[in-house]
Design goal:
alpha/beta; 7-stranded parallel beta sheet; single chain; disordered C terminus; about 425 residues
C-alpha cells in the first residue's frame, strides 16, 4: 500500500469481488502512517466497511458511494460518509473526467493465465474504467475468482503490487427458497401478462426478479441483456428457455456487467463463453439496450405517487441506495421495438404503509420521472400509464393500491383532479392497460 498517500482518491471494486483483505490493509496503512483526506469511491461494497464502521480508521477516510450498500447506509445518513448521485452508465465517463482523478484502484482478480492475463471475475461493471483511469493499481489475486469472458482482462504487469489469497471463497448471496404469496402474485402477473416469447430481459437481484423467472417456464427463446444477474436465470438456461437467439447484440450470449449469487452461479460463469461481462458504459448504454427488440426492463422502487413519479433511492430525506441503472434500462426498454419499462412493487411496506402515495414523502428523490414510467405492477394487477393523463393515472394507481388505503387516496385525488372519470363517464369505466 506504499502507493497510497494522503489526499488521494481510491476506487474499490464491489459486490462479490470486494477485496476485503486489501481494504483492511489500506485501513492499517492509513492508520499507521497517519494519512488524512483519503477519498474512497465505489458502488455497493460487500464486507464490513471498516473505514466507516471502525472508529479508529474513520478519521483517515471520507467514503463516497456511487451506489449505497447496507454496510455504509447508516453513515451516509449520519453525515459521516458521502453519496454521489449518478447513472451507472455514466460512472466510466466520470472516471475519464480530468477534474475527477482516480489515483489508486483496489481490485480482486483471478490468477493470471499462461499469457499473464487476470480476470476481473464477476464484477467488470465500472471497475474496468477505474483501472484504465487510475495511476496505480493494487490487486488481490484469488484462486477462487472465476475467469469470465468479455472485457474484464488485465495483464499482471498492470499492477503496482499484488497480494495472493488461496483460502477465501467469494461471498454467496442466497435467494429465498420460498416466495411469499404477494411476491409470487406479482411475478406471475409480469410473466403472464407482460413478457412475450423472444423477449430480452433486464432484471436484478431480489424476490420479485426471482418470482418472475420462476414463472417463465412456458416461455420460449428469451434473452438476457442486464446490468447484473443472479442464480434465478440458471435453470432457464439449462432448460433452453433462455437461448439469447433473438437478440440484436451478442446473439446467443448472455450480456451483463456483474453478477452475484451462490457458488453454482460462480461455477456457471467460470470460463463460460456463453456469458459476456462488459463495462457499464456499454451494457447500460440506452442505444445498445434499445437495439435489442422486445427488451423488457423489470425494476422495483420504494414508493410511487399517483401521477407516476417513482422514488427508488431514498425514504424521505434518508438515502437508501442510489440511481444505479434503473433509468438506463427503463428508457432503453421503452425505446426498444416492442419493449416495455416495468416497475414492480408490493402495494404496502412490511409495516402496512401504502407504497402508492398522493405525493412522495418530503425529500424523496425522483429516480424515474412520470414521463418515463410505462407499466406499474402490484399484487392487485397491472396498469399501463404510458399515454395516460394525470387523472387517468391516479385512477389506475389507486386500483393497484391496497384496499385499506384506497379511500384516502381517492379523496386526495378528488381534491387535486376532480372526478376520476374518463371521457365524461360516470367513473365506473375502467382505464386499463391494453384493452
Amino acid at each position: 500500500m506504499k502507493c497510497v498517500k494522503s489526499g488521494q482518491r481510491i476506487y474499490i471494486q464491489g459486490a462479490a469481488m470486494t477485496p476485503e483483505i486489501l481494504i483492511e490493509a489500506l485501513c492499517q496503512h492509513a492508520h499507521n502512517n497517519n494519512l488524512r483526506d483519503i477519498e474512497l469511491i465505489h458502488i455497493h461494497l460487500g464486507g464490513t466497511a471498516p473505514f466507516v464502521t471502525n472508529d479508529a480508521y474513520r478519521p483517515h477516510f471520507r467514503d463516497n458511494s456511487l451506489f449505497i450498500g447496507g454496510n455504509v447506509r447508516k453513515y451516509v445518513n449520519m453525515g459521516l460518509a458521502d453519496f454521489t448521485p449518478i447513472f451507472l452508465s455514466e460512472i466510466p465517463q466520470l472516471f475519464e473526467d480530468p477534474d475527477f482523478v482516480v489515483d489508486v484502484s483496489l481490485i480482486q482478480t483471478s490468477p493470471p493465465d499462461k499469457h499473464g492475463y487476470c480476470s476481473l471475475g464477476t464484477s467488470v461493471d465500472c471497475t474496468r474504467s477505474a483501472l484504465l483511469a487510475s495511476t496505480h493499481c493494487v490487486g488481490l489475486i484469488n484462486e477462487h475468482v472465476p475467469r469470465t469472458h468479455g472485457d474484464g482482462h488485465v495483464h499482471i504487469s498492470h499492477f503496482d503490487a499484488v497480494y495472493y489469497d488461496s483460502s477465501t471463497p467469494l461471498p454467496e448471496h442466497r435467494a429465498s427458497l420460498i416466495l411469499d404469496p404477494i411476491t409470487e402474485k406479482i411475478g406471475r402477473a409480469i410473466a403472464n401478462e407482460l413478457i412475450p416469447d423472444k423477449a430480452c430481459l433486464q432484471m436484478g437481484i431480489g424476490n420479485i426478479p426471482d418470482a418472475v423467472l420462476q414463472c417463465l417456464h412456458n416461455h420460449h427463446n428469451l434473452g438476457i441483456h442486464t446490468e447484473m444477474f443472479s442464480d434465478g436465470v440458471l435453470d432457464l438456461v439449462d432448460m433452453g428457455i433462455i437461448s439469447n437467439s433473438c437478440k440484436f447484440h451478442h446473439r446467443g450470449k448472455l450480456a451483463t456487467s456483474f453478477a452475484m449469487g451462490t457458488q453454482r452461479l460462480y461455477d456457471f460463469v467460470d470460463d463460460n463463453p456463453l456469458v459476456l461481462f462488459c463495462d457499464t458504459s456499454y451494457i447500460n448504454d440506452t442505444e445498445v439496450i434499445r437495439a435489442n427488440p422486445l427488451t423488457h426492463a423489470i425494476n422495483s422502487c420504494i414508493e410511487i405517487d399517483i401521477t407516476g413519479q417513482v422514488c427508488a433511492d431514498s425514504i424521505g430525506t434518508k438515502m437508501f441506495s442510489g440511481i444505479g441503472g434503473q433509468m438506463d434500462f427503463m428508457r432503453g426498454a421503452a425505446l426498444s421495438p416492442g419493449g416495455k419499462a416495468i416497475m414492480a412493487m408490493p402495494s404496502t411496506t412490511n409495516k402496512g404503509t401504502s407504497k402508492i402515495l398522493s405525493v412522495l414523502k418530503s425529500g424523496a428523490g425522483v429516480v424515474t420521472t412520470r414521463a418515463h414510467v410505462q407499466y406499474i405492477v402490484t399484487e392487485y394487477g397491472v396498469a399501463k400509464l404510458y399515454g395516460k393523463t394525470l387523472r387517468e393515472r391516479a385512477r389506475l394507481l389507486i386500483e393497484l393500491a391496497h384496499p385499506d388505503h384506497r379511500e384516502e387516496l381517492e379523496k386526495d385525488a378528488f381534491e387535486r383532479f376532480g372526478k376520476l372519470t374518463l371521457n365524461g363517464s360516470d367513473g365506473d369505466q375502467k382505464i386499463d392497460g391494453d384493452d
